[in-house]
Specification:
mainly alpha; MetI-like fold; three-stranded antiparallel beta sheet
Length: 376
């Protein structure tokens, strides 16, 4: 009896199940966050003072660890003074979900302090830094990766050094980039370039190597060489996978943003996050971090949709379902026996048990047999 493929081992999951799983992937962490934030007896390691009592250094709304509060409480009780009171709370660095949700609005509307940039200005600055670093990396890295994946000459010439260089952490070049490029945005773009370029060459080179060699051999048989072979065969055969690699590498570039923006003069969303942390406005910190994720996630969804427009033959969900392979066929292949379905069908005469004389091709017949009529 056939079992249903609930986990999607061999077939694509139904659309409604994919939507449910996507919903759960976001709701489950949010639900855990809500439980930790709103259920008093789960974690809540600090105490917020509501009544200082006879403790000298306690003030209203002050937050102290529960162990310190309990120790001072015992001292005051032993001395017969007024007992302090408080409520259990989480640390200031873990705001509740409703506070972070409110910060998504107030962070844009609250006027900055000390002539600091607005949040939307900081986000725009960070997006420009990411785009410049990724575009410059792609202009050089994509063609070089295609060359390394197509020709072994370029692969052996470039990839050994790139393999070595990709293990060097990009932030280690921060001081050097500042010394060469100054303290403004140039070293930030350079850090993103260094963090993306070397991975890009290797990933795209590996993707291009997956092109079917039969396509290249057929094109060479038909006379394709050099640039024509590259533009007519190699790139069209691998362009969809290269596009997917570029989406992944763009996310890779986002991971270097915070490190890059502390090089030289701090700027962008990193400056906003650090300033809000100094003001102990951790709801704004969480909101800014969430905005980075939202921008990256929505841009990836947009690029995935754009890929279905640019490459309609690769649209997901429209592939044919593969036919099930009988176990007997798999067993015969494992034993080295020929596949019965691959055997050529017998001619009708052979099926009926009759033998037929093989036909002699005209090219093998003598010339007089082609010119003289056959006598009955």
């Amino acid at each position: 009896m056939a079992t249903r493929d609930w986990l999607g081992l061999k077939e694509e999951l139904p659309h409604h199940r994919r939507l449910i799983l996507t919903f759960i992937s976001f709701v489950a962490p949010l639900l855990l966050w809500c439980v930790v934030s709103y259920v008093p007896w789960i974690w809540h390691p600090d105490m917020r003072i509501t009544t200082p009592g006879d403790v000298d250094y306690f003030t209203e709304d002050m937050e102290v660890p529960r162990a310190d509060f309990q120790r001072e409480l015992e001292k005051v009780r032993a001395a017969g003074g007024t007992l302090p009171e408080g409520v259990r709370v989480n640390p200031v660095y873990l705001p509740a979900p409703h506070q972070v949700a409110r910060a998504f609005y107030t962070a844009f509307t609250t006027e900055p302090r000390l002539d600091e940039p607005w949040l939307h200005q900081s986000l725009g600055h960070s997006i420009r830094t990411i785009l410049w670093g990724f575009i410059l990396s792609s202009i050089i890295g994509v063609p070089l990766g295609i060359l390394c994946g197509t020709y072994r000459f370029f692969s052996r010439l470039q990839e050994p050094f790139i393999e070595f260089f990709r293990y060097l952490p990009a932030p280690a070049f921060g001081a050097l980039c500042v010394a060469v490029l100054g303290i403004d945005d140039a070293p930030k773009v350079a850090i993103i370039f260094i963090g993306t370029f070397f991975q890009q060459v290797l990933v795209i080179g590996n993707t291009v190597r997956k092109v079917d060699p039969a396509l290249i051999e057929a094109a060479q048989t038909l006379g394709a060489r050099g640039w024509r072979l590259m533009t007519r065969v190699v790139i069209p055969a691998s362009i969809t996978d290269i596009y997917t690699d570029m989406r992944i590498l763009l996310g890779w570039a986002w991971t270097y943003l915070i490190v890059a923006e502390v090089v030289g003069t701090m700027s962008g969303i990193t400056f906003f996050i650090n300033q809000q942390a100094r003001y102990r406005s951790f709801d704004n910190v969480f909101a800014a971090i969430g905005m980075i994720g939202i921008i990256g996630f929505t841009s990836d969804i947009f690029l995935a949709w754009l890929g279905t427009i640019l490459f309609p033959w690769k649209r997901q969900g429209r592939t044919r379902k593969s036919k099930a392979i009988p176990l007997s066929m798999v067993a015969s292949q494992n034993r080295g026996e020929p596949n019965p379905s691959d055997a050529s069908p017998l001619p009708p005469a052979a099926e009926s048990g009759k033998t037929t004389e093989p036909e002699t091709p005209a090219s093998a017949m003598p010339s007089d047999a082609l010119t003289k009529p056959t006598t009955p």
